[in-house]
Amino acid sequence: xxxxxxxxxxxxxxxxxxxxxxxxLVIYRIGFFIPLPAVxxxxxxxxxxxxxxxxxxxxxxVGMFTGGSLHQSTIFGLGIAPxxxxxxxxxxxxxxxxxxxxxxxxxxxxxQKLTEWxxxxxxxxxxxxxxxxxxxxxSGDRPLVYPDYLQTPTFWICGLVGLTAGTIFxxxxxxxxxxxxxxxxxxxxxxxxxxARMPQAVLSVIQDSNLPYFxxxxxxxxxxxxxxxxxxxxxxxxxxxxxxxxxxxxxxxVVAGSILITQGQRRIPIQQAKHTRGRRVYGxxxxxxxxxxxxxxxMPIIFASTLMVFPSMIFNxxxxxxxxxxxxxxxxxxxxxxxxxVLSYIALIYFFAYFWTTVQFQPKExxxxxxxxxxxxxxxxxGPRTAEYLEVVMERITYVGAGFLAIIAVIPTVVSSKFNxxxxxxxxxxxxxxxxxxxxxxxxxxxxxASLAMRNYQGFLGGGGGGKGxxxxxxxxx
Length: 478
What we know:
Radius of gyration: 26 Å
Order of helices and strands: HHHHHHHHHHHHEEEEHHHHEHHH
Distance between the termini: 23 Å
Strand order of the largest sheet: 4-1-5
Structural class: mainly alpha
Number of strands: 5
Mean pLDDT: 80
Number of helices: 19
Strand content: 5-15%
C-alpha cells in the first residue's frame, strides 16, 4: 500500500492530477462556509437542529446527497443537485425521444450538444429551487431572515444570484476535475460533502460512549491536533461499551458487503465465431459479458428516498389540521421509523431498481451487437433468443441487487430505533451516503490503478514485491 502511494508521486502527470483534484475539493470546502447575505444563521441552525418529520428528513437528505448545506444556507446550499437532476432528465429522455437518441449516437458532437442543454436546464432548476428555499426562509411566524431584509428585492436578488452561481461554480469545478484532474468530478464533490460529516459522527460516538479512559484520552489528543477542538465527555453516556463496539464492527461489515455487491458480476460466456481468411483462421476466442448485480447503482435508493419524504410531510400536515384515528395512524406509521414507511420504502426500491435497469439495459441492442460482431452465447441462437435470455438473467440478478439495496437502506433506520443511535451516526451504516462513497472510491482507486498499470507500476491491488509490476512486451517507458 505504501509503495503504491509512492508510485503515484513518482509519475509527474498522475501527481499533478491528484494535486489539482485535491485543490478543487479544498476550494469547494471553503465555499461551503460562505453564508448567504441577510439570513439569520443562528436562527436557521436552531431550526435545523429541532426540525423533525418530513422537513427534517428532506433537509438531511438534500444535504447528504448534494454536498450542499441548506441548514447553514451557504452559497453552495443547493449543492450539485440541479446539475445531477438535469443530467438524469436528459438521460431518461435519451431512451424515449428519437431526437435525443440520434444525438447520443452522433458521438462527441452530439454529446457536446446534450451537455450544453444540460447546463441550461441546470440554471433553470437552480432558479426554481432557490425561489422555493428563499420563500421558505421568509415565511411563517418566525422568519429566518433579518427583519430589515424581509420581502425586499435585495434579499431575493442576492439569494437567487448566490445560490445559482454557487451551483454553476460547483458544476464548473466538477468539469475541471474531469478535464485536468483524476476524473469523475461531480461524484467526488458529493463524496467530499458526505465524508466531511464523518469526523462529527465519530466525535458524537466517542463523547456519548462509555469507553475506557485511555482510549478516550488518546482520541481527544488526536482530535485536538486535527481539528483544534477538544471533545467533552458526557457525564451520562448514551452508548454503552457494547453499543460502541457494535457500531464499529457494523460499519466495517456493511462497507465490506457494499464493496462486494457493488463489484459483483454475473458473467455470461461469449464465444467468437471463427473466420477463415486465406490460410489463416481468426476468432474463436472465449470471453464473457459482465452483468452487474447492482446494475442500478445508488439511483433506486435516491429515487425512493426522495418520494418517501412526501408521505411523511403530507400525513403530518393532515394530522395537525384534521386529527382523527385515521390521520393519526397514518402519521405514526409513515414516520421515518414507522412500519408502513419501511415497507413502502422497500417496495419503491424494488420498483426503481427494475425501472432503472429497464431504462439502462437494452438486451435487444446488445444481442444485435453480438451478432454483428460474430459472437454468440453458447447454446443460444443469435438474435431474439439471445435478447430474451439476457433479459431473463438481468431480471433475476436485479431481484438480488434490489434486495441488497433494500437491506442497506433499512439498516440505518433499524439501528437508530433499536439501539437508540443518533440518526446522523446511523446514516454511515448504510443508505445513500454509504453507497455513494463506496462506489466513488472504488472508481477512484480503479482510475489510479489504470494510470499506474499504463506505466508498468503496481497499484493498490497489485501483489507484493518491488515497486514495478510485470512489463508488457513491446511497451517502452512512457
